Amino acid sequence: MLDLHGNDSLRSGHSVINGVDVYYSRSVWRSKTFIVTPNMFSLLSKNLSNYDVIHIHDCRSFQGISAFLFSKMRNVRYVFQPHGSYLSSLPGSLAKSTAKLALDKLVSYRIINNASKIIALSQVEAMQLKTIGVPEEKIAIIPNGIDLSEYADLPPKGCFKKKFNIKEDEKIILYLARIHKIKGVDILVRAFANVIKKLDDVRLVVVGPDDGYLGELETLIKALKMENNVLITGPLYGRDKLEAYVDADVYVLPSRYETFPMTVLEAYACSKPVIASKVGGLEDLAINGETGLLVDLGNTEQLARNILYLLNDDGRAKEMGLRGKQFVKENFAIEKVADRLQCLYRDVALSPPSEFAETTPPVLKECTA
């Protein structure tokens, strides 16, 4: 395995983790979105011929482009998984920057066109891939997985509230994501202004790193005179993050665009109901009326009504949360996702090039590891 993500805290080198050889490449230059790790050339040159399949996760990174170029030189097959990042530039979502457009014309399109298989995280992403011309037979739908063992021993209820001086009987609406306008946190704040008009003792908790929108968010909260009703904690990790999920009554993600937010799976793993926008991959993850509720994008009144519905009906909220936990266990457990990836790798490695077009997702689903 080659670690294709540059890390300033790591030295270039090699280690063995759970029996897997892992090679590290230190970055020498980075911007916000591009990390240069020149030692990748040496690692790829020495090791690439030892692999049957390459898994490329980004067609606009130094690491992904390097892996692609060496795969062509050494005639090694690869699969490509965009994780929604490439597709976020499609019509109706975010606009492409000039740099992305130039990079796409130079190499990104070639990475997509020459991949043996392209992995979509959801039906929605698969449809987007078809929109840009990827043949259906080239697409395999394999979602992200979650390690449920990390949620087997959850913190006791009340730890988060005690840490942040929240009353024991106070309801918590949890938003856990980066603080960016695309995540719809402003939509949630406006909906919350309607919630507190009808329900006392409720707190909106915003957890996540600032991604350039925190100042505007704080201004909005102040304009709505809700400083005492909204708690912004910054990012939380590990046990601290689990404590937030455990004490929450409902998890809300009213995003303007999403492909596959892992936070929804995390909320389910903690038996919490989810309210989300009816957009992108959220429509696959939030099963309306079963594991949570879907709302029309930007509809603050509808969002407020759904939040009040779950906060006022503990039994219904608990039922949805338990269904969400079972939904994750059946569909997104990391072991099951790993098996599906292994099937895909083996299919690509063993099939002659002429047979790639004949391989379909149902074949992969039937394959057993």
Explain the overall architecture:
The chain is of the alpha/beta class. The chain folds into two domains: 13-145 and 335-366, 3-Layer(aba) Sandwich (Rossmann fold), CATH 3.40.50.2000; 148-331, Glycogen Phosphorylase B (Rossmann fold). It is 41% helix and 16% strand. It contains 14 helices and 14 strands. The strands form four sheets. It has a six-stranded parallel beta sheet with strand order 11-10-9-12-13-14, sandwiched between helices. A hairpin with a 4-residue loop joins strand 3 and strand 4. Helix 1 (39-47) packs parallel to helix 2. The longest helix has 18 residues, at 314-331.
Secondary-structure map:
Blueprint: E1 13-17, E2 20-24, E3 29-30, E4 35-36, H1 39-47, E5 53-56, H2 62-74, E6 77-80, H3 98-114, E7 117-120, H4 123-131, E8 139-141, H5 159-163, E9 171-176, H6 185-198, E10 202-207, H7 214-223, E11 230-234, H8 238-247, E12 250-253, H9 262-269, E13 274-277, H10 282-285, E14 292-295, H11 300-311, H12 314-331, H13 334-350, H14 361-366
Parallel strand pairs: 5-6, 6-7, 7-8, 9-10, 9-12, 10-11, 12-13, 13-14
Antiparallel strand pairs: 1-2, 3-4
Helix pairs in contact: 1-2, 6-11, 9-12
